[in-house]
Amino acid sequence: xxxxxxxxxxxxxxxxxxxxxxxxxxxxxxxxxxxxxxxxxxxxxxxxxxxxxxxxxxxxxxxxxxxxxxxxxxxxxxxxxxxxxxxxxxxxxxxxxxxxxxxxxxxxxxxxxxxxxxxxxxxxxxxxxxxxxxxxxxxxxxxxxxxxxxxxxxxxxxxxxxxxxxxxxxxxxxxxxxxxxxxxxxxxxxxxxxxxxxxxxxxxxxxxxxxxxxxxxxxxxxxxxxxxxxxxxxxxxxxxxxxxxxxxxxxxxxxxxxxxxxxxxxxxxxxxxxxxxxxxxxxxxxxxxxxxxxxxxx
Length: 298
What we know:
Blueprint: H1 32-43, H2 49-52, H3 58-63, E1 66-71, E2 75-76, E3 86-87, H4 97-107, E4 112-117, H5 128-141, E5 146-150, H6 158-164, E6 171-173, H7 183-186, H8 192-204, E7 209-215, H9 221-233, E8 238-243, H10 260-272, E9 277-280
Parallel strand pairs: 1-4, 2-3, 4-5, 5-6, 6-7, 7-8, 8-9
Helix pairs in contact: 4-5, 5-6
GO molecular function: lipoate synthase activity
Cofactor: [4Fe-4S] cluster
Domain Radical SAM core: 62-276
């Protein structure tokens, strides 16, 4: 008997990825304040991470007078599996950048500026001098502008941390990004305990502390609650919780879309566990409602 090949046999299907739900739809930016900032950005060719990061809240934040700027270049020494920023060895250090950023903030009449950066592990001071000067010059040119600095992991260079946080900013943020069990997957060059220590030292220096966690990467509720407890124990004041969205097919896939009701529950749970302020929602990003965070008691 001859065995004949079986034709039209279905191929093994790849695991289905969750479909993006309706609650992640974004409204188009509108309003006169947004339009005024949009005009300045276009006319003067200013760079904001709000645009380059395709932030869903750009219109709302610009309308409230908040904008986010990225300093220290656009090449990161880390290779986090959730982030679309290019990875490599940076070749330049622009020492004039603090002046230009401060002038851009003044030109845009930004009420609340958020500064962030790539990781610069190759620099002895992790870029701390540029961080410090950018904050100081911004305060000189725009004395009524409040500032949040979303600083990277200094890899336990605590002298660099001291320089980064001593410029006079109102809020100092360092994102945990995820729960402890997912750190090797999400932040392979980071360490959960080291980031907690960075937040602890920032709080001990007398500052208003903030962090952010992305949800939908496969974390379990109990793991998130543990992260909240760890953050409270290390002096965190403000936490943002938002939905992770895969930037490209090369990055980590979304494991789950968290519902608005679940985000609301997590907000209440964070406050119950001792956090002073929690922003929690599918479209929440680190800078969302950042202008409100300067009023959180230290």
